[in-house]
Specification:
Elements lengths: L1 H16 L2 H8 L3 H15 L4 E3 L4 E3 L1 H29 L3 E7 L8 H11 L3 E7 L13 E6 L8 E7 L1 E6 H4 L17 E3 L7 E5 L3 E5 L5 E3 L2 H9 L5 E4 H10 L2 E3 L4 E3 L2 E6 L9 H11 L3
Parallel strand pairs: 3-4, 3-5, 8-11
Antiparallel strand pairs: 1-2, 5-15, 6-15, 7-12, 7-13, 9-10, 9-14
Helix pairs in contact: 1-2, 1-3, 1-4, 2-3
GO molecular function: DNA-binding transcription factor activity; sequence-specific DNA binding
Keywords: DNA-binding, Transcription, Transcription regulation
Family: Belongs to the LysR transcriptional regulatory family.
Length: 294
């Protein structure tokens, strides 16, 4: 079969070039070898494919049929080879990534979009959820996490930090006394993100002053964007990533509570399976996200 396919390819090249000599030059064979292969093909098929003369080669009806079929075969093979060649230089495949829902409102989405534009043959399946998904059990290649301190290990990497602000609506704050200290806020209406509401809230101030409080929230939500919308509607105080409130703070709709006091930033980091190939798609995305961090 392999010999037959080779003979068919030589036959097609010969007709395309119009002579044994022309095909011989392209295929780097002698004209006699070209003629021999075509003769063997004719013998094996039991039909004449070419009428030979001193001036030109003329196809027989059977030759026309075989030439059309051979061209289709060669085009298909050459197309697949071209695709494989592109695949070898352009990464392709699929990546499943779980991401905290709140990051859909941050510059992180722009980083993902840039990666997708740079590697169009990689399919991205993005799971934006504030419910913590299991990396291995839920079948993800990368999990983006948010926490007070990024883990440092062979299978995790810090991407960037997010500043947090304690905010309330201008309407809500107008009904409360002006606070001077974090302890003044303990009896206020608080909104909390589950499951992190149980942790004390640590404040720091220029000069080294530090205070921690543990208020009792009235409303709990498992979605940071919903939490912010509740605060925006006047339900109480909420600690949120700064990028959620920037526009409303600028307009005066929301206010930064205790602006002289700061909250610890949250770090955004990635974790991935230990068996992820070092030069595979997982590390390609990780490197892109790390290089673009701001």
């Amino acid at each position: 079969m392999i010999d037959r396919l080779r003979q068919m390819a030589i036959f097609a090249k010969t007709i395309d070039h119009g002579s044994f000599r022309g095909a011989a030059r392209e295929l780097r064979l002698s004209p006699s070898v070209i003629s021999h292969h075509i003769s063997q093909l004719e013998e094996s098929l039991g039909v004449a494919l070419i009428y030979r003369s001193t001036r030109k080669l003329t196809l027989t009806p059977e030759g026309h049929r075989l030439l059309a079929a051979t061209h289709k075969m060669l085009e298909a093979v050459e197309g697949e080879l071209a695709d494989l060649s592109v695949s070898a230089t352009a990464p392709s495949g699929e990546l499943r990534v779980t991401i905290p829902s709140v990051l859909s409102q941050s510059h992180f989405t722009e980083q993902i979009a840039s990666f997708s534009s740079a590697y169009p043959r990689i399919k991205l399946l993005l799971d934006f959820s504030d419910t913590r998904r299991a990396l291995i059990d839920d079948g993800f290649d990368i999990a983006i996490r948010m926490g007070p301190k990024a883990k440092s290990s062979a299978t995790s990497r810090k991407l960037f930090s997010v500043k947090r602000k304690l905010v309330g609506s201008a309407e809500y704050l107008s009904s409360q006394p002006l606070p001077a200290d974090p302890k003044d806020l303990i009896g206020w209406d608080w909104l909390a993100l589950t499951p992190v509401h149980s942790a004390p809230i640590a404040f720091s101030k220029a000069g080294g002053n530090r205070e921690s409080i543990k208020p009792e929230p009235q409303v709990f939500a498992n979605d940071a964007q919903a939490l912010y919308r509740l605060a925006r509607a006047g339900a109480g105080l909420a600690i949120i990533p700064d990028f959620l409130a920037d526009a409303d703070l600028a307009s005066g709709l929301m206010q930064n509570v205790l602006p002289d006091w700061e909250l610890n930033a949250i770090e955004v980091f990635a974790v991935w399976p230990a068996n992820a190939p070092k030069h595979g798609l997982v590390h390609l995305l990780l490197d892109a996200l790390t290089q673009q961090k701001t």
